[in-house]
Amino acid sequence: MILRARLCVSSFLSNYPKEKKEDYSTLFEHPKTRRKAREREREREREKATKATTSSSLIVTMSFVEELKATCAKLSQKGKGVLAADESTGTIGKRFQSIDVENVEENRRFWRETLFEAKDVEKYISGVILFEETLYATTEDGTQRLTEILTKNDIVPGIKVDKGATIQVGKDGDGETDTNGMDGLGDRCKEYYKAGARFAKWRAVLKIDVEKALPSADAVEANAKSLARYAKICQENGLVPIVEPEIVPDGGHDVEVSRTVTKGVLTKVFEHLKKENVSLELMVLKPNMVTPGSGNEESEKDDLKVAEYTNEVLLECVPETVPAILFLSGGQSEDAASRRLNLMHKLQKESGKAFPWTLSYSYGRALQASALKAWSGDNGNASKAQEAFIEKAKSCSLASLGEL
Ligand code: 13P
Fold it and tell me: The pTM is what?
């Protein structure tokens, strides 16, 4: 296995321009000196943000353990996955724009209520990630909170707690980021818990640029540290952390590059989760699949390589104690996202061994794209949208069992 990993790293390096090789190799090592001052400053911020919770962390954590276990068990149910309905106001605006719908609170509430009320949703969906606005929103008639629709169906409400990938890291001009939201995170988690959330999500964003040898070691290190700190704070406050290190698919790179980078990033993330003493059995991983870049002509093809490499990377990097791995769809078509998940399960079954964790979905676009089109902003189309949503959820569910 180690030999295979080395071979794969060296073949990836051979794709880089010669002068870049040294830069890229630092992805798998500690960054040495670059941007130390900025890093120290951020470290101080993080410590300040978490101080309030850490003093009593042991007692708090102990009191939540049973509940965190129960939440993990729900999110790890076979044949179910999570609906990511936590698009920020800006992101849902882009989705609405594609169907010519105005991005106002009433439309956002209507859309999400429509999804949550779909018949049979509980057969395929174990949890829903919400944006803060939805956590506190009520139904159109004002009689109940939207979260009650979920909990009545035994669907766990979750909450996006990050504030977007807005902190600059790495070299000026490279556009690399760390994720914002550490300030007051412990206090926000307490409020979200009171409002009924039982799990959380924090999305780290890393990008591949072969020419520039990105992601840089600085960006990988910074994001892995933030994910670990976030995960710890969530567990101390009764929320199961979904740890999402997303390597975005932008670019023309091939699937081998994605394999090497995903392996490097996940290795670093688990290194920091362990350093931070995050309980790995009380978290969920939400990774990208190992795919070619969206600008690569193979991006929608070659399912076999995607499935093989994704299985290989996850089996190598993700400890068996992690209860569930729930993929993001990352701009893949609805069909590709379920076909590939299905194939991963088929390949694993053929190998004669079961996956050590639940391997399923936490899709946003790949569960909502057809439904959004069916709705198209005409509320009379709500039931058509629900049917389209459930049809996709059902395919994802079958795929998560290798039965599509
Ligand atoms: P997509 O499935 O649309 O990538 O969204 C999942 C998600 O939650 C991204 O943070």
Answer: 0.88
